[in-house]
Amino acid sequence: MNGPKKFRSLVLNRYVLDTHTIIWFLLDDRRLSDKAKKIIHQTKALGSLIIPTIVLGELAVVVEKGRVKGDLELLIKSIKNDPRFIIMPFDIEAFENYLVQNKNLEIHDRIIVATAKILKAHLVSKDKIISKYYKKTIW
């Protein structure tokens, strides 16, 4: 992928998904909020669900450490096979936006918020700290 600029005008309603959101969606976990579940299930446009690369890294760590019961290869395959998902790289534009995010956010959360801001997208996250700093957070 060529980074965020390529996707700015392709889809009107875009949603950036954080790590808990994508894991709980893929594993059909009851902890996924009804609102988040509805957004993901009702979103039909290609490339409308954005997954920052840092989220894939976090997903791998959570599975490798046994914090969730899931097969990493199958989870990644599910993401790759669903045309609604776009993997958003952490490129120079995302990095520059990351630098201006609130320093109270953890590194991965700053990257996720930076991605959502660049794309002017909603961010689907249960994280109350993220929602404090990014007003377009949905849970």
UniProtKB/TrEMBL annotation:
<feature type="domain" description="PIN">
    <location>
        <begin position="15"/>
        <end position="135"/>
    </location>
</feature>
<dbReference type="Pfam" id="PF01850">
    <property type="entry name" value="PIN"/>
</dbReference>
<protein>
    <recommendedName>
        <fullName>PIN domain-containing protein</fullName>
    </recommendedName>
</protein>
<dbReference type="InterPro" id="IPR052919">
    <property type="entry name" value="TA_system_RNase"/>
</dbReference>
<dbReference type="InterPro" id="IPR041705">
    <property type="entry name" value="PIN_Sll0205"/>
</dbReference>
<dbReference type="InterPro" id="IPR029060">
    <property type="entry name" value="PIN-like_dom_sf"/>
</dbReference>
<dbReference type="InterPro" id="IPR002716">
    <property type="entry name" value="PIN_dom"/>
</dbReference>
